[in-house]
Specification:
Elements (H helix, E strand, L loop, with lengths): L5 H15 L8 H14 L5 H9 L4 H11 L10 H17 L1 H5 L4 E6 L5 H12 L9 E7 L2 H9 L1 E3 H5 L3 H7 E3 L13 E4 L1 H4 L2 E5 L11 E6 L8 H12 L2 E9 L12 E5 L2 E4 L3
Parallel strand pairs: 1-2, 1-7, 2-6, 7-8
Antiparallel strand pairs: 3-5, 4-5, 8-10, 9-10
Helix pairs in contact: 1-3, 2-4, 5-7
The structure holds S-adenosylmethionine (SAM).
């Protein structure tokens, strides 16, 4: 296993924290060593000190991005936390439908999957919109999906997922939204299967490489999913991220956070609706 001394660990901690607000506490030493070892193998390097020199150089930003890619945790799934999607389809979309004139005027409906990982969250939203298209009939809808991790975004763009990602979905959903990728001739019949989101759903999402520590340069959103990412930040970074995200929500728009990701104690112009849902106060 790769050795990292205390001083090197502290320098990685500071670098990662400054770049993206993720606080690798001392218990994460093993995680960093395992993931860093993988990256060093990929680039045929075994000198941690030399690697630190590269990622801290002004021209080392490409390798810094690769380091960020290996330290981020991209765990996600389609329709993760079903109750959030139930709210989206049973409360949010009907509200959009009934108030579309005052709510939207002539503009598009905008939804942001912030920290989208490999895209499963954004595609789940796009599937919901399809299933409830009668409620948004005639409306232009835009889903913006962003993440800091380039590797996760690359997967999101190809929309290809291994079998385990679709295993949890009902067969009817799998058939409706995915194509099975035909295995190459000669491939073993026991090789894991792969599925791809159908192209009509891929086209609805705009993918953006974005660090939540900075403001997103896009029009304001009606609804933001910011789930299972605040847990990686300390209170200072959490406040920065929350301010950036809330500034990006229209008055009256909604913020959905992950289970047990309360934003209690943080300064924000939001009203709590329930454990996962907040609404931005009207001006
Ligand atoms: C556990 S995943 C959550 C994915 C999805 N939102 C969900 O709930 O299934 C957390 C994601 O946050 C991203 N992330 C971490 N820090 C970030 C930052 N500063 N800016 C943008 N994305 C970040 C990671 O790259 C990772 O893909």
């Amino acid at each position: 296993m790769l050795e990292i001394n205390e001083d090197q660990f502290k320098r990685f901690q500071t670098l990662i924290y400054k770049h993206c607000g993720i606080r690798l506490d001392d218990r994460k030493q093993l995680l960093l060593r395992t993931r860093l070892q993988r990256r060093l193998r990929q680039i045929s390097m075994d000198d941690v000190e030399k690697y630190l020199g590269i990622v801290t150089r002004p021209d080392g930003t490409d390798e810094l991005q690769s380091l960020i890619d290996v330290v981020t945790t991209n765990e996600t799934s389609f329709f993760r936390t079903q109750s959030h999607f139930d709210w989206f389809t049973k409360v949010f979309l009907p509200e959009v439908h009934s108030r579309r004139r005052s709510f939207l005027g002539n503009r598009e409906l905008r939804i942001w999957s912030a920290a989208c990982s490999n895209g499963a969250e954004a595609y789940s939203l796009s599937f919901c919109l399809h299933d409830h298209r009668a409620l948004i009939n005639g409306l232009k809808v835009k889903i913006i999906a962003s993440d800091l991790c380039v590797a996760a975004l690359d997967q999101a763009k190809t929309a290809k997922y291994p079998q385990r990602f679709v295993d949890t979905l009902a067969p009817s959903i799998r058939r409706q939204f995915f194509d099975e990728i035909v295995a190459a001739p000669g491939a073993s019949s026991s090789a894991p299967r792969e599925y791809q989101v159908r192209s009509e759903f891929r086209n609805q999402v705009e993918w953006v490489h974005h660090n939540l520590m900075h403001p997103l340069q896009r029009p304001l959103m009606d609804c933001v999913f910011l789930r299972n990412v605040l847990i990686y930040f300390d209170d200072v970074s959490k406040q920065t991220v929350l301010t950036n995200v809330v500034n990006q929500i229209l008055p009256g728009g909604y913020l959905v956070v992950g289970p047990s990701e309360g934003i209690y104690g943080l300064d924000n112009p939001l009203t709590k609706i329930n454990t996962f849902l907040y609404q931005k106060n009207p001006k």
